[in-house]
Amino acid sequence: MRLISAVSVVLAGALAAQAEWPQFRGPDGGGQSSASGLPIHWNGSENVAWKTAIEGLGWSSPVVHQNRIYVTTAKQAVEGEESLCLVCLDSRTGAELWSKEIFRQSGAVAMHKKNSHASPTPLIDGGNVFLHFGPHGTACVTLDGDVVWKRTLDYKPVHGNGGSPALAGEVLVICCDGGDVQYVVGLDTKTGDTRWKTDRQTTPKKGFSFSTPLVLEAAGGQQVVCPGSDAVFSYDPQTGREIWRMDYPNGYSVTPRPVFGAGLVFVASGYDKPVLYAIDPEGSGNVTETHVRWRMERGAPLTPSVLVVGDELYCVADNGVACCVNARTGTEHWRERLGGNFSASPLHAAGLVYFQNEAGEAIVVKAGPTFEEVARNQLGDEGRTFASYAVDGASLLIRSETAVYRIGKE
After folding, report:
1. % of the chain beyond a pLDDT of 70
2. Fold annotation for 311-382
3. What's the pTM?
4. CA–CA separation, 20 and 64 (whole Å)
5. Using CB atoms within 10 A of its CB, is residue 66 exposed (0-12), middle (13-18) or buried (19+)?
6. Is the pLDDT reported for residue 14 higher than 70?
7. How far apart are CA 283 and CA 271, in angstroms?
8. Nearest C-alpha neighbor of 106 from the set 151, 76, 146, 145
9. Which residue from 52, 110, 193, 204 could staple onto 94, CB 3.0 to 4.6 Å apart?
């Protein structure tokens, strides 16, 4: 009985760890949740556990750890200055526990109308929260918002910052793709010191991109896949050594996060005409001609990341046309217009795929090669909804332009 109890405690701890949402697009960075019983039907008031207004503007997704929810936001401090803050909510009640300024941004910034000063999503690891506000500051803070270290990274984004950090052991990996310089950096999580810095080996006409790295295991080791302008690179996350690259000349403003599934890495190439590439990550050197297993030009996304569930890949283009294809071959199963424009990335849980458009409408469909719409839910008149879903227990967390919602009665 004692052994059974001990095993139960270990399993409960493992499940609790899986249930947490520590980074952009969840535990594996691919929009997958192990939760069951997520809500299917809601609106602005029904099946809403709570709604909490967030001062300022930010498009970072919520992250969850030990009954706390963290989001970043940018508030106007004085004329010409933005207060870049981390906000902590009680996940059970929605009460704001605290809001702390981490950086103060001064001077005018050319900002795209679909961007904010607080777009990168925080990342939680153990007792720390890692924050990135582009060149305006990168920091590690405790779960109570006390600063452990701060530093800045030198590059000039176009249209504001966007990409979130990724974690590989004790290395924080950040893509720094500006209009001036393009590089990827690995920071020591304990000190913020630079462990490595690798310049992109490209000469793009437009160097700015906004992608979030993805850490994965392939070819007998760990890789971090980092899309940028003109090419996607895979690096050794401990040293910054280039493992492989795949070229897509003239691609820029790359935003979707890579996804790893069905043995392949899926990367979108950005503007002006996006192409979705399925890449075998087992190669080395320039794999453009050898390891691209298939590509999709029709309906590839500019902003939302894709989703892989088993052998099916789901994506939604910015114009609202969604599709499901065989992840191994690219063979199309279905293609449907969902309605509206899309920036948020889809989520999978318990055999359902959750899409969300920029007007707060969620479209829930059954996962599978046949299209079957299950529900449509309108959040309400809350302005834009660009942030991607997060999951906490059996509830969805949705961030709108003005508030964070907990959807589902728990």
Report:
1. 95
2. Thrombin, subunit H (2.40.10)
3. 0.94
4. 6
5. exposed
6. no
7. 26
8. 76
9. 52
